[in-house]
Design a protein that fits this description.
Helix content is 43%, strand content 26%. It has 121 residues and is of the alpha+beta class.
């Protein structure tokens, strides 16, 4: 029954709560990444939190970094998807191109939280 409810009856999200949870996320993060065989490993510093995540490619790593930052900041389940869909932390184009280039073995990316999300949400 809970599965049926979750598929058909999504709770209405509060704009104020969305903004509060969004502001809970750090303004800046740093990702020191390197290639390790079939994965890109990212050592993430997000505020006072430090953790490691990995992805199979650039897009996967970007998604995993965003998911990890959301998770360590205790965003409630019903707001995770709303925040995740906007890719809160997306690297600058120059840095993303490095991440996509298999000849570059590693680099450091500094990413600022995308505040324009609040205008779109």
């Amino acid at each position: 029954m809970n599965l049926v409810k979750s598929l058909f009856f999504k709770p209405k999200l509060s704009r104020e709560a969305f903004e509060a949870y969004f502001h809970r996320l750090p303004d800046n993060i740093e990702v020191k990444w390197f290639r390790d065989r079939n994965f890109i490993v990212g050592e993430v510093t997000a505020g006072e939190n430090k953790f490691v995540t990995q992805g199979k490619d650039a897009d996967d790593l970007i998604e995993m970094v965003n998911d990890a930052v959301i998770t360590v900041n205790s965003i409630p389940k019903e707001y995770i998807e709303a925040i995740r869909q906007y890719k809160t932390y997306k690297p600058p184009l120059e840095e993303e191109l490095k991440l996509r280039n298999p000849n570059i073995r590693g680099a450091v990316i500094s990413v600022r939280k995308n505040e324009k999300i609040l205008e779109l949400a």
